Description:
Blueprint: H1 4-16, H2 22-30, E1 51-54, E2 57-59, H3 62-72, E3 80-84, H4 90-96, E4 101-106, H5 109-122, E5 127-131, E6 144-149, E7 164-175, E8 179-187, E9 190-199
Parallel strand pairs: 3-4, 3-6, 4-5, 6-7
Antiparallel strand pairs: 1-2, 7-8, 8-9
Helix pairs in contact: 1-2
S-adenosyl-L-homocysteine binds near residues 53, 85, 135, 202 and 205.
Amino acid sequence: MTSARTRTRMIERLKSQGIVSSEVLGIMGEVPRHAFVDEAISHKAYDDMSLPIGHGQTISQPYIVARMTELAIGVAQRERVLEIGTGCGYQTTVLAQFFKTVYSIERIGGLAKQARERLSTLGVLNTRLRHGDGSRGLPDGAPYDVIMLTAAAPVVPEALIAQLKPGGRMIFPVGGEIQELRMIELTTDGPVEQRLEKVRFVPLLPGMA
Ligand code: SAH
């Protein structure tokens, strides 16, 4: 169930869901999503759903990874991206195929450690992983071309805009029970916000665990 045919079916489904970037479709057909979840559920890895990754967290469904990546690679330069919420490292790995360096921060130590091991096994080398609270971003790699939150911020994380390059994009889910995917672009006229679609993410939480 992790065969080439299963992946092809996922790509066909992503197209029918409105993903148009051939770059994103190509890479998502290559990255072995089943390697990012527990073996016991790896047969579901390419299905249209989020899956548990332990510690009460989830790997996002393929559609949302594709959608957010499509938005991310639309920036002028693909140099540095910050992901807040490494989780299992799947989105990190997808981003690593497009950007020179991916910075990613995870608040749960167990997940951060597992992701580090997994990425090293897979030979994904252009990433800088951190165990920490990413609520205030990560100054190490700032300014970034893209900041992507993979956990829902309770309110628009405006302070993070300071870590974006001019022309950069912040892609983030915001809300509590009801959440929305949004993008803020730092234009020459200042930050411009777009509201995209309804989504469902785990919450962005303060502190380390
Ligand atoms: N991109 C991940 C999605 C994981 S779910 C993937 O592909 O698997 C979101 C992750 O955000 C969880 O692992 C959660 O622990 C983490 N998270 C929540 N609040 C955070 C914070 N303040 N700083 C860093 N990570 C956080």
